[in-house]
């Protein structure tokens, strides 16, 4: 399968550069979706458009037997690209800065490879290709691309779902897998600490929200180390503190916002309560508070059985030394909604360019080593091929 995928390398690179040069934000992936649909139609694969608004679903295989789905996200980010390359973004202020262009490309490569398999192998099931919009953000109603596609039935009848994500900071060709919770619940909070304010020369005549915050902050930062079992993963970080406008004026209000990360559901709920409790200190110090919690993506859980399929294929195609079993971190992925709907797993594919630069995700110099495109496509395609031909095994 990897040999067949390597023959597609030039085509995959051209596809990826086309998509990279024409990035589109979440639920606006009209050109990308059309490119996907046209490519699949040319391959003679059944296509459904408009799934989850701008998503594309394709199916192939036999009516009898189980179904495996493979997901790729298509959306870009509101970032002005700084890379001086021929395929630089032509949409000012929008950039594929997380690798979704490569995910879409690799899934189109999967379509090519499985079309070949369908002509030569005996299939006993179906493969569903999910080209998903808006992974990066919710809309104004709290809907992401995964939840929109699920609502439109994209996961109905699916027995397993797999995906990959490139990692621009990991060596090209390295494959990371992890059983269980591999990414985090992603929640955000806003808080307003309020007092009476007044003249900076007479603080005793009012109540100072900045002083109140000085007691609240260490309480927040102590939550992971003093309120949560240290063997349970969690993070609480502040991203903004805003208050006051003059050196001699005590403000009436201070604004704070931050992020709460966790994995297990009970830790997630405890963190919500602990962070709000920290702001209650303002009441003991003569002030008041308002707290707003925004619940985000759930933690992504890699089903050990499905992950075992990916591990076995990755070892066969790339070799044991290329496969690393380690946690992914406390980032978030809305693929987690799909793994709640069906047993699923995602692996990380190292794609660092060896040029001395650190091309982190969500930065204006993000880019990948395009040489990994055939490998990613081959692992996904071979896993699906073994699924529908009954040749899967765990390792």
Structure description:
This protein has 395 residues and is α/β, with parallel strands linked by helices. It is built from eleven helices and 16 strands. The strands form four sheets. The chain has an eight-stranded mixed β-sheet, sandwiched between helices. A four-stranded antiparallel β-sheet has the order 10-12-8-13, with helices on one face.
Which tags fit this structure?
single chain; 395 residues; alpha/beta; Alpha-Beta Plaits; eight-stranded mixed beta sheet; four-stranded antiparallel beta sheet; 16 strands; 24% strand; elongated
- Derived from helix and strand composition plus strand pairing, the structural class reads alpha/beta
Largest sheet: 8 strands, mixed
What is the CATH topology classification name of the largest domain?
Aminopeptidase
Kindly report the spatial arrangement of strands forming the biggest sheet: 1-2-4-3-5-16-6-15
Radius of gyration: 24 Å
- Strand percentage lies at 15-25%
> How far apart are the first and last residues' alpha carbons, in Å?
19 Å
Number of strands: 16
Task: Summarize the structure in short.
The chain has about 400 residues and is α/β, with parallel strands linked by helices.
Lay out the secondary structure.
Layout: H1 2-6, H2 9-21, H3 30-42, E1 46-51, E2 55-61, E3 67-73, H4 100-120, E4 126-132, H5 145-151, E5 160-167, E6 175-177, E7 180-181, E8 185-194, E9 198-199, H6 209-227, E10 234-242, E11 249-250, E12 253-262, H7 265-279, H8 281-284, E13 288-295, E14 301-302, H9 304-318, E15 323-325, H10 335-341, E16 344-350, H11 373-389
Parallel strand pairs: 3-4, 3-5, 5-16, 6-15
Antiparallel strand pairs: 1-2, 2-4, 6-16, 7-14, 8-12, 8-13, 9-11, 10-12
């Amino acid at each position: 399968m990897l040999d067949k995928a390597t023959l597609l390398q030039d085509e995959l690179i051209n596809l990826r550069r086309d998509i990279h040069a024409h990035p589109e934000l979440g639920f606006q992936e009209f050109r990308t979706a059309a490119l996907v649909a046209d490519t699949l139609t040319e391959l003679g694969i059944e296509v459904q458009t408009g799934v989850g608004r701008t998503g594309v679903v394709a199916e192939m295989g036999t009516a009898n037997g189980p179904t495996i789905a493979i997901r790729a996200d298509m959306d870009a980010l509101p970032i002005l690209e700084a890379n001086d390359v021929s395929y630089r973004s032509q949409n000012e202020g929008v950039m594929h800065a997380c690798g979704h262009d490569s995910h879409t490309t690799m899934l189109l490569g999967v379509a090519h490879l499985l079309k070949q398999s369908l002509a030569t192998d005996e299939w006993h099931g179906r493969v569903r290709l999910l080209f998903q919009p808006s992974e990066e953000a919710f809309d104004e109603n709290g809907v992401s691309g995964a939840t929109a596609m699920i609502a439109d039935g994209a996961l109905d009848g699916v027995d397993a779902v797999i995906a990959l994500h490139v990692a621009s900071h990991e060596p090209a060709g390295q494959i990371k897998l992890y059983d269980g919770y591999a990414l985090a619940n992603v929640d955000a909070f806003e808080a307003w600490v309020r007092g009476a304010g007044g003249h900076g020369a007479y603080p005793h005549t009012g109540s100072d929200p900045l002083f109140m915050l000085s007691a609240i902050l260490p309480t927040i930062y102590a939550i992971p180390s003093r309120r949560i079992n240290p063997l349970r993963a969690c993070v609480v970080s502040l991203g903004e503190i805003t208050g006051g406008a003059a050196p001699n004026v005590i403000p009436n209000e201070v604004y704070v916002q931050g992020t709460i990360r966790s994995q297990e559901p009970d830790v997630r709920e405890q963190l919500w309560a602990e962070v709000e409790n920290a702001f209650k200190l303002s009441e003991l110090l003569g002030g008041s508070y308002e707290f707003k919690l925004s619940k985000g993506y759930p933690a992504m859980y890699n089903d050990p059985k499905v992950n075992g399929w990916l591990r076995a294929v990755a070892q066969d195609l790339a070799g044991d030394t290329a496969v690393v079993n380690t946690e992914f971190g406390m980032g978030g992925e809305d693929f987690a909604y799909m793994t709640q709907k069906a047993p699923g797993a995602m692996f990380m594919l190292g794609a660092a360019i060896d040029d001395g630069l650190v091309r982190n995700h969500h930065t204006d110099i993000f880019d990948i080593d395009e040489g990994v495109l055939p490998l990613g496509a081959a692992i996904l395609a071979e896993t699906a091929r073994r699924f529908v031909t009954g040749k899967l095994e765990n390792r």
